[in-house]
């Protein structure tokens, strides 16, 4: 049976992780660099940060980690490359909605290969959260051009993002979450850099202002987001961790409203509340199911 305390820590960690990931969208808007350049520099800096963190804690980075984390790193690197390529051909709304379908894919994989049981009630509330996320995204839609090629790239990005979650869950067999996070960060930087040059993006050395924002992304989305989610995924069901990602568009919109002055319509506000409430019900159900049932008190003889 799952340790309730371990599960609770995992749920809290996953919640904090998606909040940290949400800051990446807002920070990226202040960086005047191409997408793959941001990915390359951000993950290179993130890799340095986590390697230093490991060193301070007395943990050694062994090169076998690069081998064991390869598929996770390829999946994460492909997700970033494909998503930024997708938004050049299709609308950000389309790409975001397609990406929001990840919990469905991961849920099927979790049930089939990890033996996770998803109750009908949990599935229903997850779909409610998904519907709310779609409303949050589409309510801010503009007259952006969509292209089937971009939609297909967004679909490939979503599948790559799903593969990253699955690799993270599976990594506990050969390495610690910190090792997996470090290995995938290095792989992602190694993938984004040559692809940036190959696609003709500007890979110039960032300005010091850009470095400050990249450092904030490396610490927030990286050390807090990726590291904490990878740590959480070994403690919570895979499908639950994936469903948490539906909060990213919600928190990103709220941060953009708070710090960038972007408008949030009443419809978006209602949809955000629905997403948060639906996921709170799912989380609550997980906590209740994991709570130990106290042993019955033996009756006292009369």
Shape: globular
Strand content: under 5%
Output the number of helix runs.
Answer: 13
What is the helix/strand order?
HHHHHHHHHHHHH
Ends distance: 35 Å
Counting structural domains, the number is 1
How many strand segments? Answer: 0
Structural class: mainly alpha
- How is the biggest beta sheet arranged? none
Round the Cα radius of gyration to an integer and report it: 20 Å
Mean pLDDT: 89
Helix % is over 70%
Q: Report low-confidence residues grouped into runs of 5 or more.
A: 293-297
Overall description:
With 302 residues, the protein is mostly helical. The chain has one domain (4-290). Helix content is 74%, strand content 0%. The radius of gyration is 20 Å and the shape is globular. Residues 293-297 have low confidence and may be disordered.
Which descriptors would you attach to this protein?
302 residues, mainly alpha
Q: What is this structure's SSE topology?
A:
Blueprint: H1 4-28, H2 35-56, H3 64-68, H4 70-86, H5 92-99, H6 102-113, H7 120-138, H8 148-170, H9 177-198, H10 208-233, H11 238-244, H12 247-259, H13 266-290
Give me a quick take on this structure.
With 302 residues, this protein is mostly helical. Helix content is 74%, strand content 0%.
């Amino acid at each position: 049976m799952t340790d309730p305390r371990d599960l609770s820590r995992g749920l809290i960690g996953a919640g904090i992780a998606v909040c940290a990931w949400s800051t990446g969208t807002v920070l990226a808007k202040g960086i005047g660099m191409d997408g793959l350049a941001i990915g390359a520099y951000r993950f290179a800096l993130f890799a340095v940060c986590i390697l230093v963190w490991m060193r301070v804690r007395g943990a050694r980075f062994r090169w076998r980690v690069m081998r064991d984390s390869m598929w996770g790193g390829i999946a994460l690197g492909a997700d970033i490359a494909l998503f930024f390529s997708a938004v050049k051909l299709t609308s950000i709304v389309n790409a975001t909605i397609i990406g929001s379908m990840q919990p469905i894919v991961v849920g099927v994989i979790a049930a089939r290969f990890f033996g996770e049981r998803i109750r009908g009630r949990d599935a229903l509330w997850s779909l409610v959260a998904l519907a709310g996320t779609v409303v949050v995204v589409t309510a801010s839609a503009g007259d952006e051009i969509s292209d089937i090629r971009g939609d297909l790239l967004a679909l490939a990005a979503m599948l790559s993002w799903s593969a990253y979650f699955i690799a993270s869950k599976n990594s506990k067999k050969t390495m610690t979450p910190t090792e997996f996070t470090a290995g995938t960060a290095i792989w992602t930087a190694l993938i984004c850099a040559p692809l940036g040059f190959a696609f003709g993006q500007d890979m110039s050395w960032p300005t010091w202002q850009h470095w400050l924002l990249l450092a904030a992304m490396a610490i927030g989305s990286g050390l807090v987001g990726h590291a904490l989610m990878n740590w959480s995924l070994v403690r919570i069901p895979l499908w639950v961790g994936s469903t948490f990602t539906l909060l990213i568009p919600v928190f990103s919109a709220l941060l953009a409203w708070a710090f960038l002055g972007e408008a949030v319509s009443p419809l978006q506000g209602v949809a955000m509340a629905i997403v948060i409430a639906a996921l709170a019900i799912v989380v609550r159900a997980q906590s209740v199911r994991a709570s130990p049932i106290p042993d019955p008190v033996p009756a006292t003889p009369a």
